[in-house]
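FORM 7B: Structural annotation worksheet

SECTION A. Query
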Amino acid sequence: MGNTQGGTLKKKKNYKEYTVMLVGKIGAGKSSLGNFLLKDERFLASDDLAPVTDKNMAECGKLYDDLTIKVIDTPGFGDFRSHEKIKEDLADALYESIDGVDAFLFVINGSERIGKELVGQFEMFERFMHHEHFFNYVIPVFTKVDQRLSNKGETDTHSYEKQERLINEDLKNQQLKPFKEKVLEKAKQNWMVISSTCRDDEFYYDVIIKKLIQTIEGIRIKSQGMVCTSYILKKAEEISEEERAKLGKDREEEIKKMIIGIILQMIMKDITISEFTEMF
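SECTION B. Predicted structure
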């Protein structure tokens, strides 16, 4: 499989590991979702709209038996930190995905009614990835839906069926027709509801993880075992292998810093940080 509009597909190296990248707006609950998936407080999370600084961009954990998951966080749309810090975090996140991504979890704040501005967010990230197959790897994830159920006076807010039903009601809104046509249909209707506050509910957690694995396995089957990456990462990987051959594996940290620097230079040619942070 070759390059397509700057995007590329590559063969998965380790089928026992799922690599997911969290994408979304500030306050959508990306970091909390990462902690839910890992069943541990690995990412610094905040309930307000202020971006969390100085956080790790990737963490790994165990799911079932010999299955593991690598969760990669990204700076959120609307991040108002210094452009330099955002660039560093974005480059770090991209470096962590150098072996390819099984699925992009596009995190949407489900505690509010879904807005039509979501189409712009999806299209912007698709353009950033420069990949015609990008939406084949997207799983829209609605978070914090239990909060809306609670506000409506509902009991059993941890019920996946109730959470899913509430989002389905939102999607009947005619104003969301562009979102359904341009996002959900492209993403093969692979959307999910995940409420991170339900992490300690063993039954709920088990339902979510099994559904996520099933969805990612479906993506793998359709993509014939290929994972999604980009032209930027393909070039970075080539340089990384060349430098590793020259310097040796014992200088991995030095190689990593150099590759992240190269990624920084390359991503700024495709999209400006102002565009990334101020579009919404």
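SECTION C. Observations
The longest helix spans residues 202-222. The two ends are 34 Å apart (CA to CA).

SECTION D. Sign-off
Analyst initials: ____
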